[in-house]
Amino acid sequence: MRFELRAALVATSALAAIACGEKTSVVQPEAVASMSVTPAYPTIVVTTQVQLTATVRDASHRILTDRAVMWGSADTAVATVSATGLVTGRAPGPAQVTATSETKSASATVTVIPIPVAAVTVAPADDTLVVGQTVLLTAMATDSVGHVLTGRPVSWSSGSPAVAAVSAGGMALAVGTGFALITVLVDGSPGLGRIWVPAAFAAVSPGPRHSCGVRTDGAALCWGDNSTGQLGKGSIGFGGAQPVVVQGSLTFSQLATGADLTHSAGFTCGVTTGGRLYCWGANGEGRLGGGDAGAPVSRPREVSAAVTFTAVALGGGHACAIATGGQVYCWGFNSEGQLGTGDSTDRWVPTPIAGGLSFTAIGASLVHTCGLVTGGAAYCWGANSSGELGNGTTTGSPVPVAVSGGLSFATLSVSLSDFPGDHTCALTAAGAAYCWGNNYWGQIGDGAQVDRTAPTAVAGGRAWTAISAGGIHTCGLAAGGALYCWGLNASGELALGTVDTDLHLTPVAAPGIASYQAIRSGSHHTCAIAAGSTRALFCWGQNEFGKLGNNIVGRSPTPVIVVGF
Question: Is the pTM for the entire model greater than 0.70?
Answer without folding.
Answer: yes
